[in-house]
Amino acid sequence: MSSISSIPVVALVGRPNVGKSALFNRLIGDDTAIVSEEAGTTRDRHFARCEWQGRAFWLVDTGGLVEDSDLPMDVAIKRQVQQAIAEADLMLLTLDAKAGLHPSDARIVDMLRNSRKPWLIVANKVDDPKSTDYFEFFNLGAGDVVPVSAANGKNSGDLLDQIIEKLPEHAEEPGPEVLRVAVIGRPNVGKSSFINRLLGEDRLVVSDVAGTTRDSIDTPFTYHQRPFIFVDTAGLRRQSKIDDGVEFYSSLRTRRAIERSDICILMIDAVEGLHNQDLKIATMAWDSGRGMIIVVNKWDLKEKDDKTAAKFEKECVEKAPYLKWVPFLFTSAITGQRVTKVLDLLLEVEAERNKRITTSEVNDALQELLARRQPPQAAGHEVKLNFATQVETAPPAIVVLGNHPALVQEHYIRYLHNGFRERWGFTGNPLRVLMRQKG
Ligand code: GDP
Questions:
Q1: Which of 123, 148, 149, 275 suits 339 as a labelling partner, its CA being 20 to 30 A distant?
Q2: What distance in Å separates the CA atoms of residue 155 and residue 163, rounded to the nearest whole number?
Q3: Counting beta carbons within 10 angstroms of the beta carbon of residue 225, is it exposed (0 to 12), middle (13 to 18) or buried (19 or more)?
Q4: Does 232 carry a binding-site annotation?
Q5: Are strands 145-147 and 119-124 parallel, antiparallel or unpaired?
Q6: Was 234 annotated as part of a binding site?
Q7: How far is Cα 354 from Cα 359, in angstroms, rounded to an integer?
Q8: How confident is the model at residue 2, as a pLDDT?
Q9: Residue nearest to atom 19 of ligand 1 (CA)
Q10: Is the Cβ–Cβ distance between 9 and 211 less than 8 Å?
Q11: Which UniProt keywords apply (predicted)?
Q12: What is the pLDDT of residues 132-190, one digit of tens each?
C-alpha cells in the first residue's frame, strides 16, 4: 500500500513560452525523476508524481491555465500564480534566459514574496552551461537562480536537488489506529455541507489541528471512542471559495485525498445520478485499494417512492459492476436525514477491510467452488488449482495456487471472486484474487 503521508505539490509558474511544459516533461522524463506507475497515481497532462532522492512530490504544470485562457495575458498570469500559491507547497518561477527579463516577471516575484511560501527562480533555455544570459535575473533580488535547459536536460538534476531542499518537512502523521476518511466527489454535490452537518453533531468530539502541509488541514474527531480523521477538509472549504475553473487542481486534490485515506466516501448528486466523472473518481479510489461508501446526497430533492433507492443503486451497478460490493447511503445534508449513519457504515467497512478468513475456510471454499465448476482446460494442459489462502488485509487479497496460473481464464477468476464474495462479503472493499504457481 502506498504511504498515507501527504506528498507536497510543486507548481511551475511563469509567462507563456518560457518552456514550462518542456521543463515539466524533462523533469518527469525517464532519465531524471522517476514517475510512479502505481495505479491511480500515474501522470496526467498537467501533473505527475515524481521521486527524487527518496522523496516524492507532485509536479504541476500550470501552463494550460494561461495559454488556453480567453483572459487578457496579465490577468491570466495573475490567476495562474494565485492558484499555485493557494494549492502548492513550492513554486518554480520559470524565466526565459534567451528572452531576458519581462516586466510581468517582477510582478510575479512580488506575488510570490507576499505568499509566505517557498519558491525558486528557474532560468530556462540555458542550453550552454557557460552562458551568462541568465545573470540579469539576479537583479530581481529574489535569491538564487537555477539555470537549466529543458531542451537538452542540462542541470535538471541540480534543479531536482534544489526542489527537494526547499520542500517543507514531512509532518508526523497520526498512528495506524486512526481511521482516515476522504470525502470525494464532483464540486457542488454537497461534500462541505455534509461534513459540516456531521461535525455539528454533539456526539462527535472535534478539534482542528494542522495537517501535514502548511495549508492542508484535517479534521480529527472521535465516535464510539474510535479516532477518525476527515482528510483535507480545508481543501474542501477552499474548493467552494475559489472559482473552480482549474480542473487539474481539483483533480490533483482528489488524488491526494485518496492517497491519504483508508476509506473514501464518494458523494454523488441524487438528482443528477452517476456521471462519468463520478465513475472516474470511484475507480481511482477502488483501484488504489481504498475502502468505499457511496453517499447519494440531496435525496430531499428527489421525487421518490419505496423503490427509488433500490432502482438508483441498480442503475449504478449496471454502469460499474464492482459497485455491487459497495454500500450505498441516501442522505440529505440539508435536512440531516441519515447523515450520521455514515459513521456506523464506516466502522462496518473498516471491519470488513481488516477481516481475516482462516486458511482452512478459504480452502474449503475453493474446494466447493471447484466441485461446482472446474477451471476450463487450456489446449494441451490440464489446469489444476490446489490451494488458496488470504495473504493480505486492508485491502484483502486471496492467492490461489495451481499448476498453470497464467492459463486460468479471466471469467473463471471472476467466478472464484464472486464465490468468495458471496461467502465473506468484504463489503465496501476491493478484493484481489491472484493466481500463483504452486511451489
Ligand atoms: P461541495 O462543493 O461538494 O462541497 O458542495 P457544497 O456543500 O458546497 O454544496 C453545494 C450546494 O448544494 C450548496 O448550495 C448546498 O446548500 C447544496 N446542498 C448540499 N447538500 C444538499 C442536500 O442534501 N440537499 C439540498 N437540497 N441541497 C444541498
A1: 275
A2: 13
A3: exposed
A4: yes
A5: parallel
A6: yes
A7: 15
A8: 34
A9: 190
A10: no
A11: GTP-binding, Hydrolase, Nucleotide-binding, Repeat, Ribosome biogenesis
A12: 888 889 888 878 899 999 989 899 999 999 999 998 876 656 666 899 999 999 888 99
Is 324 among the annotated ligand-binding positions?
no
Report the SS3 class of residue 274: coil
**In which band, very low, low, confident or very high, does the pLDDT at 216 lie, cut at 50, 70 and 90?**
very low
Shortest-distance atom of ligand 1 to CA 193: 7
Percent of residues in the chain assigned helix, strand, coil, to nearest 5: 40, 20, 40
Q: What is the phi/psi pair of residue 88, to 5°?
A: -100, 165
What local confidence, expressed as pLDDT, does residue 249 receive?
76
Taking only the tens place, the pLDDT of each residue in 40-52 is 334 456 788 888 9
| Ligand 1 lining (C-beta closer than 6 Å) | 185, 187-193, 236, 239-240, 297-298, 300-301, 332-334
pLDDT surpasses 80 at 70: no
Residue 123 marked as a ligand binder: no
Cβ atoms within 10 A of the Cβ of 151, count?
A: 14
CB 6 within 8 A of CB 213: yes
Cell numbers linked to 44: 496526467
> What is the end-to-end Cα distance of the chain in Å, rounded?
26
How many angstroms is it from 190 CA to the middle of ligand 1? 4
Question: SS in 3 state form for 11-56?
Answer: EEECCCCCCHHHHHHHHHCCCCCEECCCCCCCCCCCEEEEEECCEE
Ligand 1, atom 10, residue with closest C-alpha: 188
Report the nearest atom of ligand 1 relative to the CA of 331: 23
Element (H or E) spanning 199, and its range? helix 191-199
Ligand 1 centroid from CA 207, angstroms: 23
C-alpha dihedral sign at 163, 164, 169, 171: positive
This prediction's pTM: 0.78
283: nearest Cα among 249, 254, 248, 314: 254
Read out DSSP for 119-155?
EEEEEE---STT--GGGGGGGG-SS-EEE--TTT-TT
**191, 193, 267, 281: which to mutate for ligand 1, most atoms within 8 A of CB?**
193
Output the residue whose Cα is nearest ligand 1's atom 9.
190
